[in-house]
Amino acid sequence: MACAPPRGAPDGQAGACEAQGGAQGGPIPEAVPGTTDKRRDPRPARDALLALVLAALIACLLAGTASAGPVATRVVRATGTIVPIPAAIPHEAGDMVDRRIIPDLRWIARRFPIFVTDGYSGPLPDGEHAGCRGCHVKGSDHYNGLAVDIVPLQWSGKCDRNWRGITRLARWAEPRQNRPAPPFRWVGYDGDSGHGCGDHLHLSWEHAPARNFRLAEWVEVFPVRRQDLTPHSAPGANRGGPAGGAQTGPQNPEPAGESQPSPAQGGISRIQTGGVSPRGD
């Protein structure tokens, strides 16, 4: 039955009657073109957001992988020898290391603005002493020639922009505190007493147990391609090292194809026993 409001009925009553008529199957006015409320499909926006989130997650995973140290390592069992650090690696005059870590140091020097302030620390067969005397703790890897102390090539005694490259190197070698990436045995930097931005970075390589001033039976290193060992002048060459002390900046690049540096006469003996502190600097 149709709803017929009385003559003169208020507008509200008439509106109610129209609504009732519509509910009873009465005619519904057609929508006026251009006035229909169009609701947008939310799926394209949602899909785009999910794609952005996924891309961000992938980028984070790739960045984490890239910063987690070398992708592969190998154990070198060839006999070690304490040798002078080559000129292609910026260092303090007279610094020496086990020759088995020199390829890794060359690779690092090509990619980070480093200056090595100390390597092997101990007596030499000729009665001389290499490295900083009394600067390292008992059982330090410096006593085996398998550790280096590093500062920026452009020295600064405070933690400033000159240390950015060293900080990147430290994070590459140790993505998480106290969990160094292989082949590193210990990384001393921010969070470690006596180390850090504005002080120095300590890197040491994993190796077989060895007593102080003895060469380890084996050393773990990361493989380096031959082309990555080509001598060159590092950025900032001839600008000198940190101020204070008898230090030198990078020397002239070695001629291409030059052989490994000559070992110190006599070297230090190689044994298979003993031990070192994994946190020794």
Roughly what percent helix? 10-25%
Low-confidence segments, given as residue ranges, are 62-66, 231-267, 269-279
Integer-rounded radius of gyration: 35 Å
CATH class of one domain equals Alpha Beta
List the helices and strands in order. Answer: HHEEEHEEEEHEEE
Q: Can you give the mean pLDDT?
A: 75
Number of helices: 4
Strand order of the largest sheet: 4-7-9-8
Number of strands: 10
- Sum up the overall morphology in one term: elongated
The biggest beta sheet is recorded as: 4 strands, antiparallel
- Examine the secondary-structure arrangement and name the CATH architecture of one domain: 2-Layer Sandwich
Content of β-strand: 5-15%
Given helix and strand content, the structural type is alpha+beta
Distance between the termini: 99 Å
Q: Say what the CATH topology of one domain is.
A: Muramoyl-pentapeptide Carboxypeptidase, domain 2
